[in-house]
Design a protein that fits this description.
The protein is of the alpha+beta class. It has 8 helices and 9 strands. Strands 1, 2, 3, 4, 5, 6, 7, 8 and 9 form a 9-stranded antiparallel beta sheet that branches. α6 (163-174) crosses α8. It is flat and about 60 Å long. It starts with a strand and ends in a 20-residue tail after the last helix.
């Protein structure tokens, strides 16, 4: 099975279009993290006070470096003012979004990977219907062209996990629960917390389920790049509904 990668840029109204148009040397890299987003803003030019003020208005500044070599600012802000539908459109067309989104000179640059070239075509056609779009590249990918790190954005792997589920997963991992042989038990893990064993187990099982579900799309991409069948799976066998 082949993989297809498309890189394109779109132009529409968003909080960063005006900023990147007014400052052509500015580059904004955008990562989505659950209920917030992280922006890395860079420019090789010495920034003006107006530029710095405009950047600080985007959200909470996590890091700021300003000198004669330019500006490097990392901010965090909520997603309430942003259009989230374009990422949802990628998913609707079975296209895997490759972060970050890059904003330059009024354009948003995106890269997606898909199993089928037709999915890429249908996505681009839909986007073209309601915004300016320019396709920069559209190519078939060989296995060696796709770094595994591109297939596992951290924010997507842990999407939907609650704080308690993440904490349960981290505790189990740190205490050796997933090692072979196991170094601890669910009873011992729960005893280190303020919740009952049944509650801790529920948090852990839900975390495992969500993590594996989120990883499924990346797993399919990895296995699609291999023509082998190491377990000799019968691809034509019907799915079994009952658990063993």
């Amino acid at each position: 099975m082949s993989l297809y990668q498309a890189s394109f840029r779109v132009r529409h109204e968003c909080p960063y279009r005006d900023l990147s148009e007014r400052y052509p040397d500015l580059t904004i890299r955008e990562w989505y993290l659950s209920e917030c987003q992280v922006l890395e803003i860079t420019s090789a030019d010495t920034p003006t006070e107006q530029l710095l003020e405009d950047i600080r208005e985007l959200g909470t500044v996590l890091h700021e470096s300003v000198d004669e070599s330019g500006v490097h600012v990392v901010t965090q802000s909520c997603l309430c003012s942003l259009e989230g539908s374009i990422i949802e459109r990628f998913e609707d067309h079975a296209c895997l979004y490759q972060p970050p989104t890059v904003h330059q000179q009024g354009w948003e640059h995106y890269t997606v990977i898909a199993f089928d070239e037709g999915d890429v075509r249908s996505l681009l056609s839909e986007l073209d219907a309601d915004r300016d779009i320019e396709v920069l590249s559209k190519t078939a990918l060989a296995e060696q062209q796709v770094p595994h790190s591109m297939l596992t954005p951290v924010d997507q792997l842990f999407e939907g996990l609650t704080d308690r589920q993440l904490a349960a997963l981290q505790l189990a991992l740190e205490r050796g629960y997933y090692e072979q042989p196991r170094k601890t038990s669910l009873r011992d893990l729960a005893a280190q917390t303020s919740v009952a064993r049944s509650t801790f187990e529920e948090h852990l099982r839900k975390a495992e389920n969500k993590l594996l579900t989120n990883a499924g799309q990346f797993l399919r991409l990895l296995t699609a790049m291999s023509s082998g069948n190491p377990l000799q799976v019968d691809r034509d066998a019907p799915a079994v509904d009952t658990a063993d």
